[in-house]
């Protein structure tokens, strides 16, 4: 899989607006138009690995971390973030 920075940004922005419910991945429908199945989940995993997101409970929710908020600030300011 190739890392897609635009998708990572979309995931972080979504996580900023509301927690990602890993038990109900219905939110993926909004991403699925542009990305093949499984890609969004893999990018959520990359965000967790990078420290941008963290599992509150692995079977329930993923939320934005301090580092994730900083990454979004850098993205919006046009600064290097990854």
What can you tell me about this protein's structure?
The protein has 82 residues and is α+β, with helices and mostly antiparallel strands. It has a single domain (5-77), classed as Arc Repressor Mutant, subunit A. It is 51% helix and 13% strand. The protein contains 4 helices and 3 strands. The chain has helices spanning 5-17, 28-32, 39-50, 66-77; strands at 20-21, 53-57, 61-64. Strand 2 and strand 3 form a beta hairpin. The radius of gyration is 12 Å and the shape is globular. The two termini are 17 Å apart. The mean pLDDT is 81.
Care to give the gist of this entry?
The protein has one domain (about 5-75): Arc Repressor Mutant, subunit A. With about 80 residues, it is of the alpha+beta class. It has a 3-stranded antiparallel beta sheet.
